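Box 3.1 A note on notation
Throughout this textbook, protein chains are presented in two layers. The first layer is the amino acid sequence; the second is a token string describing backbone geometry. Keep the layers aligned when reading.
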Amino acid sequence: MTKVYCIGSGVVTPVGNTPSAVYSAVLEGRSALCMQEGWPEPWLGSLLERSGFEGPSFFSHIALKAARQAIADAGINKPSQRTGLVISTIKGNVEQLSNADVSLAADARFLADSLGITSAPIVVSNACISGLAALVQGMRMIRSGNFDDVVVVGAEVQSRFIVSGFQSLKALSQRPCKPFDADRDGLNLGEAAAAMVLSNRPGKDSWELVDGAVRNDANHISGPSRTGEGSYNALRYVLKSADKNELAFVNVHGTATRYNDEMESIAIDRAGLLDVPVNALKGIFGHTMGAAGILESIVSMLALDNGVVLPTRGYENCGVSRPVNVSASARPASGNSFIKLLSGFGGVNGALLFRKGGER
């Protein structure tokens, strides 16, 4: 089977606009979470500065910035006809709903044209696993033999539509979120864009995307399975390609909501991974939705490049039923691979196995 590598990455976040800057912020525990005033109801989260933008929307603007950065990092001067584009988002440019034609298709076409990609772009919108699902889609495009490179970019901007929806579910915390902690009381929202260039050829110090799985447990429109069924089945699939002794950590979804963290702990237990370190990054940027799977994977690759299991900001005391090995502070990492785990509304779940260097 064709191997797929990450050969370039790019990010746009409130804590830094390069992968290395974001990694440093996470390592140092520098969070962008703060109270957002001027909304119908104040909320705590992280937002990007809006000082004008290129393209039809701010969403397309940040997605384009991240994608251009990743393409430059990959050393690609001009995308070939065998370059694909996959865009990950949950709500896209819905912030323009009141004053413009909202069309993800138009934003996707703008991104493709701006990047010089001639193939038809694909948009993945699959709740909170969208970023991971987009990476899996990119892997499949390369393994089909029809593409040599695929740019995968995820982006999300917050709006009254999104914020009010989470507020109506009583899912937002007015404090910085505390993933897996006994005192957790909800999530924080955030904005970001992140991109990877996937390729059928390795680059210098590149990472292999070994295998990925998307599973749906169809439990509830907004509540995860109480037995972790979907996440467990996704983990079980990717573990077929993994050596548990080589796993440095599992980077979880870690939204700090009561049921999501509990479900992930059950899935990790059922998969036999209680001894493997676990961390979550939502305490730095908040929940960046369509960007989360890509952004958190990029940061995790840098962490293992530096031999570090990153801390889970906000975690102090275990608040889930299974004794998961949550990393409360930075610690040395052992192993050459990690798993990215995500879950979302509608019972969607996903897992993706990354391996450093692309060789066992």
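The two ends are 15 Å apart (CA to CA). The chain has two domains: 5-199, 207-356.
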